[in-house]
Design a protein that fits this description.
The chain contains 6 helices and no strands. The protein is an all-alpha fold. It has one domain. Helix 1 runs antiparallel to helix 4.
Length: 127
């Protein structure tokens, strides 16, 4: 169960990071995406797109169906809706945690790399 959760959350996190890198690297494409009626905002929003990807993934794969059923064991439509929202939001929370952790590590690496290059540029000027 935990394995399913981590696979789903990390897959959505990576998909959203790939999407944002693509938009950042391709300004013309990004501008076209923004102009798409109705879906443009969804595809350009760093919160919305991963949430909807999580929604679709949970809808089709239900990675937490067993533990969620124990948290909301009642039958009927209210139980189904409650279980779906609990699963959606908990997978989304893990996805955002993983996504922002990866992003933070990348940013720290970029800062370190920049500082390393800057230090060596100063060394080259001394010689």
């Amino acid at each position: 169960m935990l394995t399913h959760y981590l696979i789903v959350a990390s897959s959505i996190a990576i998909a959203s990071l790939i999407w944002w890198n693509w938009l950042d690297d391709h300004a013309t494409f990004h501008a076209r995406v923004r102009r798409i009626p109705f879906f443009g905002h969804l595809l350009d929003c760093s919160f919305c797109l991963p949430m909807w990807l999580t929604f679709l993934t949970v809808f089709f794969f239900t990675p937490l169906s067993q533990p969620i059923a124990q948290l909301a064991p009642w039958n009927g439509l209210a139980g189904v809706i409650t279980r779906f929202f609990l699963e959606w939001f908990s997978v989304a929370a893990g996805m955002f945690l993983i996504r922002h952790s990866i992003f933070m590590v990348r940013e720290i690496g970029a800062v370190y790399n920049h500082q390393h290059r800057k230090n060596h540029e100063e060394d080259e000027h001394k010689h």
